[in-house]
Amino acid sequence: xxxxxxxxxxLFIPGAWMGAWIWDPTVDRLRSRGIDADSLTxxxxxxxxxxxxxxxxxxxxxxxxxxxxxxRRVDRPAVLVGxxxxxxxxxxxxxxxxxxxxxxxxxxxxxxxxxxxxxxGWGPDDTARAQERTDxxxxxxxWAPPPAAALSVEPGLSPENRRYLAERLTPHPGHTVLDPxxxxxxxxxQRGTYIASSPGNVPGALAALHAETWHVRVLESGHWPMLERxxxxxxxxxxxxxxxx
Length: 245
Hints:
This protein is an alpha/beta fold. Helices cover 37% and strands 14% of the residues. The chain contains 11 helices and 8 strands. It holds the Pfam family Abhydrolase_6. This is Pimeloyl-ACP methyl ester carboxylesterase.
């Protein structure tokens, strides 16, 4: 189908441990609807990346990488789509380049708070956060992906999807989840839609009365809705992109 250049450019940013491949089927579905969509692999998550390459990447590198991609798309505004870790990236890009970003869509994303890292909001308590930091440091700034045993208890994943992830997930640059975010304005002042996998996964900042430029929706799923409910995810994004024009 011919691309509709009246709609925004949609850029998908993978979450931790993943490359562009996790979003490629969604991109294909949107392109079949005439939407100009693309995905990218964040630095340090390229296939075969060395341990030294992974360890050197910082959160600011990912923000700059996505910003550079947007600046090359000077013809139209963009919609950024984040998932989990990459909400930290997408929201910081939108903070810096609001004139290029018409809105953002977040699937169970971590959202940045100025001066705080992803790990500062990780897990159920300080003990879990301290252990996660220690594990990353012990692995020389590599954040290990969930093992196959952890994927096996994800109820929304089919056996094929569990194998798919287990075979492709790679260590994530540890600095990117330890580095504090840098925000000029609070994230709740941006325009965005938060897609939560359950009502309990909506960030507290978006439940505040002053988060008036955000919409919150619930799409019941596990942590990988693009695998578990691919058609629903694509349709939802297409609707949101259409309403963003």
